[in-house]
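Reading group handout, session on sequence-to-structure problems. Before we discuss, look at one worked example. The prompt was deliberately terse, the way you'd type it at a terminal:

> structure HTH araC/xylS-type domain-containing protein

The input record follows.
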Amino acid sequence: MLAEVLVDRGDWVQVVPGARACLFSLEESPLPLHLPLHLDHLHFEILFCQSGTMALTRRDGSALRLGARQVLLLTDLSGLSGARVDTPLAGILVAVDARGARGSLDTICDLLGGLNLDTGQVRRWMARREGCAVEGPTHWSRAAFADLDRLPRSEQARWCVWKSVELLYLLSAQEEEASDAPPSLAVDRKTALILEETRRYMEEHLNEHLTIPILSRRALLSATTFKKGFRRLYGLPVHTWLRQRRMERASKLLQDSALSVLGVAQAVGYGSVSQFSAAFRRQYGLTPAQYRKNA
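And the output record:
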C-alpha cells in the first residue's frame, strides 16, 4: 500500500532477504494524498511515523488515526475503504514479503534469544482488527522512538526492521495468551453476533455515557460474560477499546470540524475539557489544541 506510493519517493534499503525499509518524507507531495487500499498476498507493512498524520477508514465505518510517534501495522487482510495522508508525512516504512522473509525472521529471533514468533498468531490478531492497527503511545512505542532519535540516519532502516520483529513477537505472545484461555471463556457464535452488534452500537454512540452495566443489559448478557467475551473477541478490555475509539473520533473532529475543544469533548462522551484533554494527551502526546494547530 504505502510501498507502492514510495517506490520513487524515498531511500530504500534491502535490510535482509524479504524485508526492506524506506526512509521518506512527503513534504513536497500535494495533500491530501489518497493511498491505494491493497497489499499483495502475504505482504505486510509497518510504518514508524515520525511526523504527519494519516486517516484510515475501515469498511464497517470505524476510523483509525495515525499521528507522530505512532506505529501503523498493515497486512494483506486489510479491510480499508479509505486511506489518506492529511499532513506532510515522514518516517520509516518496513515492507515485508512473508514468503521471502521466513529465514530472516528465524535468524533474528535466534539472535534475540530464541524467541518463538508465530506469524499465524499475528495474522489472527490482525484479522480481528480488519488487517490494520495503530500502536502507541505505549511504553514500547515511546522507547522505540526515543532510541530512533538517537541513531544516525544510516542505521535507522536496519533498526526499524529489528524493532518490527520485536513488535510482531509481542503481538504473537499476546494472541497466544488469549488463545490459551479455558474453554469456559470461548465466545460462541450467538454471543459473538451479539457482541458485534453491541460494538457497532458503541461506535455510533460514542457521545453517550456508555458503561458496562448499560451495555451488558442492552446485550442481554451478564456483565462478566460481556466483559470477558468482548476482550476475547476484540483483544482489548471494553473501557480501553472505547477510549481508543473516542480518541480516534476526537482527532478526526479536531482536524475536520469547527467544533470547540469542549464541543469535541462532548461529541465523544466527555463532560469536561480537563478529563478529555488528559485522555487525549495520553493517546497522542499532545493537547487537543496543540494537535489541531499541528494539523
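Points for discussion. First: The two ends are 23 Å apart (CA to CA). Second: Strands lie at 10-16, 19-25, 33-34, 43-58, 63-66, 70-75, 80-97, 132-135.
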